[in-house]
Design goal:
The structure is a single chain. The chain is α+β, with helices and mostly antiparallel strands. 11% of the residues are buried. It has nine helices and 15 strands. Helix content is 33%, strand content 25%.
């Protein structure tokens, strides 16, 4: 005795026919169902971010839908392929099509992102479904392919032992593969666990580290930590000099992929060569350092007094040559000369000194200044300052030292004498 049920007449979506030991389910518009599930997946990702629902909808979207729509477009007739052939081609082509899409996206300005991947895969399926419906429509109704899911218990009993064993093995392999796939999606493998710990120079680059400093001169660095441990971690940073803990820099707690970066200033007061300055990073309550960084700094004794205040650059003009000497009058004998009033000095016009081509600027080095900061202050290269002063090491300058700044002549001020 047979039973059947369905939905709709002309626009039949599916039908179920039960004849004894044979159960047949027919889907008339499976391509529309695939497109509908694809759009539901996009809405789920951006509107209802439920991980389990994304896995259930995303697995067939990646492994089956693109290949099935392509096979439907290539083979619209029901006799073109067997059911198992369509299934195998659908899985294989899906695995082949999506990487090709990613390769194309990689060479476009859009790049490979979640949104571009979803849109490109969905657009591909819309095009292939349109071609499949067009090609099916040109065939007689009895020759068009329709998706049938059939369970024939009588045929199962009539088949041989080898056929049944192979069928069970195939079904078990498919179930195992799907189970492994879902498990990997639900429990992704955690990558390498590590922590980035770094020191940068005062300008945020991996250069400009101090090698020679004066005792008490501020040393500026940038300390950074990035958590790649795939978990929340509490860190403690300390500074050591010559193996003795002098200061705890910070105690922070970072989530995965969170970054901490701060400017840090310290001083060294004991003169000595190649002093080891260690920066130690501890994780949690560990007593042993998790990461460590070291600097070797030579501390020089302060050899010159430090001027109070911050004197500005001092302009020192080169003396101008005197005018040619004129014929002097007949000298007066000393014994006959009668002293008179002391001659008044020649008046000198007041005003700012006039720059000459030989003019120069003298800068007095202040605490915390470096050759790079002085060069930026005057707009000249630090190499020009080194050449003008005969310096060999840009780090070896002392507080109170006078430096010649080779400022171009046109940048110097020009004074106009004030008339008397």
């Amino acid at each position: 005795m047979g039973q059947s049920c369905g939905k709709g007449d002309r626009g039949l979506s599916y039908s179920v026919v039960n004849r004894g030991d044979r159960l047949t389910i027919t889907f008339q518009h499976e391509l529309l169902a695939i497109l509908g599930l694809s759009f539901v997946l996009i809405l789920t990702i951006y509107l209802v971010p439920i991980p389990a629902l994304r896995i259930v909808l995303g697995a067939p979207f990646v492994l089956f839908f693109p290949g099935y729509t392509l096979v439907a477009a290539l083979f619209p007739g029901k006799d073109d392929l067997e059911g198992i052939e369509r299934l195998g081609l659908s899985l294989g082509l899906s695995i082949a099509v999506l990487p090709l899409m990613g390769l194309v996206l990689n060479y476009t300005p859009l790049g490979i992102t979640l949104l571009t991947t979803l849109l490109s895969a969905t657009s591909f399926m819309v095009v292939t479904c349109g071609i499949a419906y067009y090609r099916r429509g040109r065939l007689p109704p009895e020759e068009r392919y329709t998706l049938h899911v059939e369970l024939d218990l009588a045929g199962w009993r009539a088949s041989g032992l080898i056929d049944r064993s192979l069928t069970v093995a195939l079904a078990f392999s498919i179930v195992a593969a799907l189970g492994t796939f879902f498990f990997v999606l639900a429990k992704p493998e955690v990558g390498e666990r590590f922590t980035e710990f770094y020191l940068l120079g005062p300008w945020g680059k991996a250069e400009g580290y101090p090698t020679y400093v004066l005792a008490g001169q501020p040393i500026r660095l940038i300390v950074g930590v990035v958590n790649r441990e795939h978990d929340d971690v509490r860190y403690r940073l300390e500074k050591e000099v010559a193996g003795q803990v002098l200061e705890q820099i910070a105690e922070i707690e970072l989530a995965h992929d969170e970054k901490w970066e701060e400017h840090y200033t310290f001083t060294l007061v004991e003169p000595g060569e190649d002093q080891k300055v260690s920066f130690l990073l501890y994780k949690g309550d560990d007593q042993a350092p998790y990461r460590s960084l070291h600097l070797w700094v030579s501390v020089l004794a302060l050899g010159a007094p430090v001027a109070t205040g911050t004197p500005g650059p001092m302009l020192t003009p080169t003396p101008v040559a005197s005018p040619p000497a004129q014929a002097s009058p007949t000298p007066i004998p000393v014994e006959t000369a009668t002293p008179t009033s002391t001659p008044s000095p020649t008046p000198i016009p007041t005003g700012t000194a006039t720059a000459t081509p030989q003019a120069r600027v003298i800068h007095i080095v202040q605490p915390g200044e470096t050759l790079s900061s002085i060069s930026r202050q005057y707009g000249v290269s630090y190499q020009a300052i080194m050449d003008a002063n005969g310096l060999e090491d840009p780090n070896l300058i002392a507080v109170g030292q006078e430096l010649i700044i080779p400022v171009p002549d046109e940048t110097l001020p020009t004074a106009t004498p004030t008339p008397r």
